[in-house]
Amino acid sequence: MHTGDKAFQCEICDKWFSRQENLKIHLRIHTGEKPFKCDICYALFSQSGNLKRHMMIHTGEKPFKCDICDERFSDSGNLKRHMRMHTGEKPFKCDICDERFSDSGSLKRHMRMHTGEKPLKCDLCDERFSESGTLKTHIRIHTGEKPFECEVCDVKFTDSSTLKKHSRIHTGEKPFKCEVCDKRFTRNDSLNIHTRIHNGEQPYKCEVCDKMFSQSGSLKSHIRIHIGE
Predict the structure, then answer these.
(1) Which positions fall inside the C2H2-type domain (predicted)?
(2) Which domains does the chain have, with CATH numbers?
(3) Which of 58, 57, 109, 95 is nearest to 78 (CA)?
């Protein structure tokens, strides 16, 4: 350990180890051997330490405590990631857009924006998603599940963000402000539509007379002139 001497070599990937026991554990990566089993849920692990940490899920044991907010964790890795919330540390950087993240998982999910990778597939309609949370929300379209309920009018929603937008009807909150005239809106898409008044953008075109409109509703009303509705 002190000399750095590594006398034991893996014959598969040529990686070296200072102890034969470490080599033995490493070889399980190649063999897939998982000799340590949870007696409660029968999950298998390649190392005894991983099994020990896993058992804390069942026992509820959380020996690692944050000194700032007293939140507790079952393993030191989760505590370390949690601490970055307080320190603001973001050691993981995207090589494409230089955006930084506090954990490797967030960086991995972010990279799918650039690569277009969508590894998660809906088993009911084959639509694909880049994140498990988005897939979970999508599944509710098929199941009809709406777990998020408005406490004021009892209307239910499939996801928390839609509930949050809806709640502004009751609270009157308007967090989105126009930078030109300071008018405020409850939704970002409403602000985007309003902004077209100032920038002159007209993305909706009538296919009959080529007249342009800033809002889809205005185009829909205009179409009635042509169809005589």
Answers:
(1) 8-35, 36-63, 64-91, 92-119, 120-147, 148-175, 176-203, 204-229
(2) 8-59 (3.30.160.60), 65-142 (3.30.160.60)
(3) 57
In angstroms, rounded to a whole number, what is the distance separating the alpha carbons of residues 64 and 79? Answer: 7
Spatial distance between the Cα atoms of 68 and 208, rounded to a whole number of angstroms = 64
Q: Which pLDDT score, from 0 to 100, does residue 50 have?
A: 87
Q: What is the pTM of this model?
A: 0.49
Look up tokens 């970002």; give the residue. 188
Give the helix, strand, coil percentages of the chain, each rounded to 5. 40, 15, 45
Which of the 8 DSSP states describes residue 89?
Answer: -
The rounded distance, in Å, linking the Cα atoms of 91 and 101 is: 6
Dist. CA 104–CA 117, nearest whole Å: 17
Report the alpha-carbon distance of residue 127 to residue 58 in Å, rounded: 35
Residue 157 confidence (pLDDT) above 80: yes
At 155 the three-state DSSP class reads coil
Q: How many residues does the chain have?
A: 229
Which structure tokens are listed for 111?
A: 């990279």
Strand, helix or coil at 203? coil
Residue found under tokens 């599940």: 145
Structure tokens at 214: 């800033």
Task: Give the separation between CA 218 and CA 17, rounded to whole angstroms.
Answer: 71
> How confident is the model over 49-59, as a mean pLDDT?
87
Q: In which residue are the tokens 């089993």 written?
A: 37
pLDDT band of 229, cuts 50, 70, 90: confident
pLDDT (0 to 100) of residue 4: 78
For residues 191 and 176, the answer to whether their CB atoms sit within 8 Å is yes
Residues 185/194, Cβ–Cβ less than 8 Å: yes
